[in-house]
Amino acid sequence: PWRLFHRCNRLLTSQIISYYDSINQCKKELPEYFNFASDVLDEWSRLEKDGRRPANPAFWWVNDEGEEVKWSFEELGFLSRKAANILSEVCGLQRGDRVIAVLPRVPEWWLLNVACMRTGIVFIPGTSQLTAKDILYRLQASKAKCIITNDTLAPAVESVMPDCQFLKSKLIVAKGSRDGWLNLKEL
Asked: pTM for this structure?
């Protein structure tokens, strides 16, 4: 199966190179605005629906216990639009606002990354090894309006909240709820 993937990958790579070559040679116009989520992911979803591109997973995640999350391009598009709506409508974020995501590499990390691309929100990743002091510094330096984390790191965020004047919303990626936090999975 990996050979099939690599064969498609070569085809895709050659298409991308020829597209950029045509732009460099002034045969195609450089787009004024480019959005990876809508211009690439949504286009691949459309091509798969039309049968002009083989159906391959857009996202495939496996944890240490062997649990899998596999999303098609259509599913990734749908879920990222839902996450984008949460960020813009529920959290009140706009293009150019900053979001800090302090999460381990769980599927929601990539989903939020694509959602931020869709909306023009600046996605600032942070390792799950950050301390409360590290989180405080990043929140103050970035003037982030939203932070997204898990149950493990939520207490560290809560301990520095009084010093974070720009922070407007807190999203948690967890199975249960936590007081004062919006739950991404429930939303």
From this structure: 0.80
- Fold of the 36-183 domain: Rossmann fold (3.40.50)
Closest CA to 39 of 26, 30, 50: 30
Two tokens, residue 133: 């002091």
144 contacts: CB under 8 Å, gap ≥ 6: 97, 98, 99, 100, 124, 138, 166, 167
Look up residue 81 and give its two tokens: 């639009």
Mean pLDDT for back-to-back runs of 10 residues, the chain (187 residues): 45 59 66 83 87 84 93 92 96 96 94 96 95 96 96 95 93 92 94
Angle in degrees, 0-180, between the axes of helices 73-85 and 107-119, rounded to the nearest 10: 70
**Alpha carbon distance 184, 187 (integer Å):** 5
Across the chain, the runs of DSSP E, i.e. the strands, are 59-62, 68-71, 98-102, 122-126, 146-149, 169-172, 182-183
Residue boundaries of the structural domains of the chain: 36-183
Burial (CB < 10 A; 0-12, 13-18, 19+), residue 115, is buried
Q: Report the sign of the C-alpha dihedral through residues 33, 84, 104, 41, in that order.
A: negative
DSSP 165: S
Residue with tokens 């330096």: 141
- Confirm if 101 and 126 have CB atoms less than 8 A apart: yes
